[in-house]
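Homework help board

Subject: predicted structure for assignment chain

Our instructor gave us this sequence and asked us to write out the predicted structure in token form, then describe one feature. I got the tokens but I'm not sure how to describe them. Can anyone check?
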Amino acid sequence: MNGPYKPGTPCWIDLMVPDQQAALDFYCDLFGWQGEVGPPEQGGYSVCTLKGKPVAGIMKAMNPDGTTPDPMPPTVWTTYLSTDGIDSTLKSVTDAGGTVMMGPVDVMDLGRMAVIADPAGAVVGLWQPGTFDGAAIVNEHGALIWNELTTPDLPGASAFYSSILPVSTARSELPGAEDYLEFQVAGRAVGGMMDLSKLPPGVPPHWQPYFHVDSVDDIQAAAVRAGGTVLAPAFDMAAGRMAVLADPQGGAFSVITASMQETPA
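My token output:
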């Protein structure tokens, strides 16, 4: 990826965990990333790289004053949607029934960020780029390829996201996936949306990242050996072969060998 992501496009992901070093070890071994705990002035935030280019962030769960949260929040991957005007986007969020959970915050000269919840409760980040656009490698082994919202209200989510960012939704044209919705920016698919009722009871509305891998089965086995959990064993579907996994601290993510690769930008 060269240059900024179009507004409305997922541009970055990061993980918040109790044990940052353990998460770095797990994902670096699994995907071939490089990463280490960042400097204190950045709160220890780690920008993980692939082939020397940023692909994801990992940070230790902590309160704004640096203390340990009690209770500890769940381990989750956060998807960030690109915006060229975070203040106006946040106004649209509240006008449309969403909640601003954090921000906007200046991240040095890198950009401005915020975290919101949509009306159904799914949490997603917003990123207005400064000197940092987001993931610089996508669609390769170990890199982000897709971001997916799972929600109990497909029409409501479509209306919400279309009102805060220049995105539209359309039904997938993949065979067997007619009930799956795509987020589109300028007519190009950049993410997906599925009905929460397809998942086990108790799973909350959420956004989840997909990583492209050369072999889903090999990555699934490696994740288990490293203490991870299989949430949905490897299976074939319209877009390729995929599995849903969780790292040893509970962070859920999907891996896919896509039959058709689309750049999310």
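Reply (TA_rk): Your tokens look well-formed. For the description, you could write something like this. The chain has a mean pLDDT of 93. That's the kind of observation they're looking for.
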